[in-house]
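Methods, example record. To illustrate the input and output format used throughout this study, we show the complete record for ParB-like nuclease domain-containing protein. The sequence lines were provided to the predictor; the line carrying structure tokens was produced by it.
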Amino acid sequence: MAEKITIGWRDLRDLDLDPDNPRHERGLTRSDVIAQFVKRENIRPLARDIVQHGLSPLERFGAIKDAGNDLVVVEGNRRLCALMLLHDPSLAPTPEERRSFERLSRSFDPSGLEIELEVFSSREEANIWLERKHLGENNGLGTRGWNPVQQARHFGDTGNTLALALIDYAADKRLISPRPDGILTTVTRFLSNPFVRRHALLITTGASDAEFSFNGTRSLFNRRLQRLLTDIINSTNGASSRTTALEREEYARKHLVPMSDDDVEDDDIDGEADLDDNDASTDAQAGNSDAGDQSGGTDSSDDISETSDHNASPDANSDEGSDGGPTGAQGGGTSSAPSRRLKLVDPDAFHPSLRDNGLRRILLELHLVTRRTPALAAIGVRIFIEAITVAYLENRMNRTVAERDKLHVLAQQALADLSEKARQNLLDLSTKEKNALRMLHNQVTNSSYVFSAAYLGAVAHGSAFPTWEQLTAAWDEIAPILMVLATNCEAPLDGREE
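The corresponding predicted structure is encoded as:
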């Protein structure tokens, strides 16, 4: 029978790391175990999370007693290693990592911290529960991670939010039955195409809005949505996960746009999807020229208008990465006259799914800058590139980034890692993304390139002022690979802490 005990911060040294933990070779010394964990097991991000939020109240430590009656932690070694390094940063294996953990330690308030342990009578008794924790779902015995649909429901603001809302809406309205699994990311791909979303489905709200609205009758909206989801579920009429943006637009023109109110009963003419009918308002009433355009034509615009829907497609002429593992992601959007658009970064075209509030805030503000403030736009891009690069290095490459590290060096390291993953077929990059990767990798050290580290540094110090033409043309060159980097910069969600 397991015994429950609690260890305080001052008694942390009473706990030993497990020399036989499966995460490393058996029989290592404590210093070697710590070095292995720091190198391979993302200890620094975990330590930072502990500094910010404390230990998870949902996770206990597990321990056994060795021959000398000392407590050996058999469950929670990553967390224990992080705590040890916060307690004594000199245990870190390199000077750079010691400095990093010293900075974290100075920010850490351990008062009130308690380490709750289940002390098992033997390793065999502990193994029953270790296997349930670390062998995945294990036929229902273990931890079952959230699938993309469940993640979207939990986070509510991922790139899959609108797709999930439409699938739930269709299931609730019995347009499809039963509620399908395995189509969420494919639906998201179709909705990321502005033509499919705005002209075919007549959705007037944004690509990431769960509370969506549409223009026209509910009957027509329901009919078109039903056709799209049914074709995706059955992989009919070319509606599959392996389509390009142009193929998705072609599908919408051929199979969705021809549907009209003459084909369905006019049972509802409000434009709100399960929202307050009294608040319903269409884009046509607001003066939006997209609202009545069901033909797929592009809109006229003045010198500071945004690009047309067709040209703003996030991944025209390109293939998208397959699901699972690091993901390729199209982004950026191009125009036949990039300098004529109002915004540098189109929110519909460049919308990587980010969970970190800081990264999301940076991206939000980058979406807001316009041609009237080109210098601020350039500085915003620099902040964004640095933020996603550092996040990628720390979360995906287990790199410790120091304050003195140069942006161009960090960016090249992250890009080189993406290139290597693509070479090993761990990352599916389109031709556009590969070209953007080469461009940014080559130009990030070129002081005359508008998005190089040196040029952006000069802008920040007020000694360089880029033109809108320079910014928009260069952004469209590198946006596809920035989309990939941003999409993959955070630690993967697998439903487990350990």
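Annotations derived from this record:
The mean pLDDT is 81.
Residues 374-396 form the longest helix (23 residues).
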